[in-house]
Specification:
The protein has 417 residues and is mainly β. It has two helices and 34 strands. The model is unreliable at 1-23 (pLDDT under 50).
Length: 417
């Protein structure tokens, strides 16, 4: 046994010496740098708002958020006419703005990047291609992505504002930014086609036919890609191939459109804005079976163990196990939408002109800020209609700060004094 052991030790020693010699010659082996667009970065994986309705699930939840009221205004920037739902990642904030101040005769849609602490420019604002009346921005895999209404999709380096790639779809009519999930961008062109693009190059991966031609955002998680049309129809598609997994369509019915499917509590939620059927229906993500229907005229939002549903200005915090209300908030003008759920607080866009922050457990108002003047008494205020205007609305949070688009094209940052 001893000779055998000695020979084994000799071979092992040679191997170790050879490896050491090789290391001395070549140096340590370094892992390849991640390719932007392919994988989520650490900064975007927690305490970050990646676009319209927070992330690819559109559930309005910001996981790991640290911001908490009361807030102090840190800075305010005037960008012209209107500011999109911001993207907030790390110590940076991004938005699409209409920089026309009313004197230029039309929109001037631009991408801006700012230092979150000071509001100073990271780089000169970029004029988007196909300068049109609608544009938006989202984030994923370390890149920014913009869309224009006629279908120009572009990727941008968030550190420099330089364009990484750009593609233009044929005959598109778009209102919502693309959604990043696991290295791919998901979107639909408004003319009956859903698409997946490689987020690092813009190369087309697949296309899939839809049953309707309408403006609607896409959402995605491990169960698939979802495109919904206000409760009148939805599609669930395979992430990698675009193959149809299931669909629900009400035949020969048309109506308003433009609000997303929301993925929460194991279901895909989509609402009808038909005046005779103001409801949201939850469909099981795995089977597509309708689970429940609730009164709603705004897109629901989710927090731990809760779904927040608004109908005619009444926001109800419902348990996702019993669907009983823990508390209720009511708008004085009977219109409200939950925009964000973060760090134990619920952020309500009240149509009376205020952003109202509620305690997630009790529903108590803990802070509010007037974004817009109060409406004229008796004025008609439509319920949530997120496809209207130059950009999709929303607020954002990251690293203890809150970013809120205000009146007449301002972006306001809040935080601790």
């Amino acid at each position: 046994m001893k000779p055998t052991t000695r020979r084994s030790r000799t071979r092992l020693g040679v191997a170790v010496v050879s490896a050491a010699a090789l290391l001395a010659v070549t140096g340590p082996v370094r892992a390849a740098a991640p390719v932007p667009g392919r994988t989520a970065t650490a900064a975007e994986s927690t305490d970050a708002t990646l676009g319209y309705r927070a992330d690819s699930r559109a559930d309005s939840t910001v996981a790991g958020a640290t911001a908490a009221p009361p807030y102090t205004k840190l800075w305010s920037r005037d960008f012209g006419t209107v500011v999109s739902a911001p993207v907030a990642v790390g110590d940076k904030v991004y938005a699409v703005v209409n920089a026309d101040d009313g004197t230029e005769g039309g929109p001037r849609m631009m991408l801006v990047g700012l230092q979150a602490a000071s509001g100073k420019d990271l780089w000169p604002a970029v004029l988007l291609e196909q300068n049109e009346t609608q544009a938006g921005v989202s984030y994923g895999g370390g890149l920014l992505y913009t869309e224009t209404s006629r279908g120009t999709i572009s990727a941008w380096d968030p550190a420099t504002g330089r364009q990484k790639w750009s593609v233009t779809l044929d005959s598109a009519s778009m209102q919502f930014p693309p959604v990043w999930y696991d290295g791919l961008l998901y979107l639909q062109d408004g003319n009956g086609t859903a698409l997946a693009l490689r987020a690092d190059t813009g190369a087309r991966v697949w296309t899939a036919p839809l049953s309707q031609h309408a403006w609607a955002p896409t959402v995605a998680d491990s169960s698939g890609v979802w495109v919904g049309f206000d409760g009148i129809g939805w599609h669930q598609l395979d992430l990698k191939t675009g193959a149809e997994l299931r669909r629900f369509v009400v035949p020969d019915v048309s109506g308003a459109y433009g609000n997303p499917v929301v993925l929460g509590a194991g279901a895909a939620w989509t609402r009808s804005s038909d005046s005779d059927d103001e409801t949201v229906t939850a469909y099981d993500e795995k089977t597509g079976k309708a689970l429940r229907k609730l009164p709603a005229d705004a897109t629901p939002a989710f927090g731990p163990g809760r779904v927040y549903v608004a109908h005619r200005g009444e926001v109800r915090a419902l348990s996702t196990s019993t669907y009983k209300a823990a508390w209720t908030y009511r708008s004085s003008v009977d219109v409200a939408t939950v925009r964000l759920v973060a760090n134990g607080y619920v952020y309500v866009d009240d149509a009376d002109g205020r952003l109202v922050v509620l305690d997630q457990q009790t529903g108590a108002v803990v802070w509010s800020y007037r974004r817009y003047p109060a409406p004229v008494p008796g004025a008609f205020i439509p319920p949530e209609d997120d496809w209207r205007g130059f950009v999709v609305p929303g607020i954002a949070t990251a690293r203890g700060r809150l970013f809120v688009p205000g009146a007449e094209g301002t972006l306001i940052a809040f935080g601790k004094a």
